[in-house]
Amino acid sequence: MKNWFVYILECRDGTYYTGITDSIEKRLAAHNAGKGAKYTRGRLPATLRFSEMVKGKSRALKREAEIKKISRKNKKLLCKA
């Protein structure tokens, strides 16, 4: 089973973006080149604040959904952990 990553970016305006990828480096570069998610395009640059490796895309999607549901305060704590 392939490794996937769940990640949180902090955008220039202080907001957080959560996503999944199989390559953190490529995905971060895509975001900062304006080729990532529509949300981050107008909020560049984006800085990686958190990443977590999980086994399989399905688990990554589930973990992403969990993180998206938590409060901003808890996301901030997660990023500091």
Question: If you had to describe this structure to a student in words, what would you say it looks like?
Answer:
The chain has 81 residues and is an alpha+beta fold. It has one domain: 3-Layer(aba) Sandwich (GIY-YIG endonuclease), CATH 3.40.1440. It contains four helices and three strands. Strands 2-1-3 form a three-stranded antiparallel sheet, sandwiched between helices. The radius of gyration is 12 Å and the shape is globular. The model has no long low-confidence stretch (mean pLDDT 95).
Segments where pLDDT lies below 50 for 5+ residues? none
Briefly note the structural class of the backbone.
alpha+beta
Order of adjacent strands in the largest pleated sheet? 2-1-3
Task: Please give the number of β-strands.
Answer: 3
Provide a count of the helices.
4
What is the name of the CATH architecture?
Answer: 3-Layer(aba) Sandwich
Radius of gyration: 12 Å
CATH class placement: Alpha Beta
Name of the CATH homologous superfamily: GIY-YIG endonuclease
Terminus-to-terminus distance? 26 Å
What is the string of SSEs from the N terminus onward? EEHHEHH
Could you report the average pLDDT, rounded to the nearest whole number? 95
In the CATH hierarchy, the third-tier topology is known as GIY-YIG endonuclease
Question: How many domains make up the 3D coordinates?
Answer: 1
Which geometry do the CA atoms define?
globular
